[in-house]
Request: fold
Amino acid sequence: MNQILIIAHEPLAQAFRAAALHVFPDCGDRVHALDVLPHEAPEQTLERARVLLQGMPCAGMLVMTDLFGATPCNVVSHMLERQETLGCHAALRGVTGLNVPMLLRAVCYAGLPLDEMQERALSGGAQGIIPLTCNLGACDQDVKE
Reply:
């Protein structure tokens, strides 16, 4: 089974993991979180990620991050470029722009080959972004305060 590692600005990584556990209480052994601290150098975050990856047996790992171009994303890019130096023997794939639908889709499809899992996560993230309208029926009711 593939693993999921969330690397995001503090406190988002732990919050996303908590959201996954809220929906899928049994996913805790395969969803991991690493919060990037506000004044931490990228090298320190990369080292903490390396330590976290050591001894984590898995077929593959999808590393998810919150914001393209920011420190967490840059750390994931370095991880993908230098997989052999991380001490992780699993294949790594990365995605950015993490949202809850993307994460839940990754959890649901963690048993697929890693490339397919990554594609399912990306499509779940995109499909989870929709304009909200009155189609939910709430707009017809009076809101009482």
Notes: Strands lie at 3-9, 31-36, 60-65, 91-96. The radius of gyration is 17 Å.
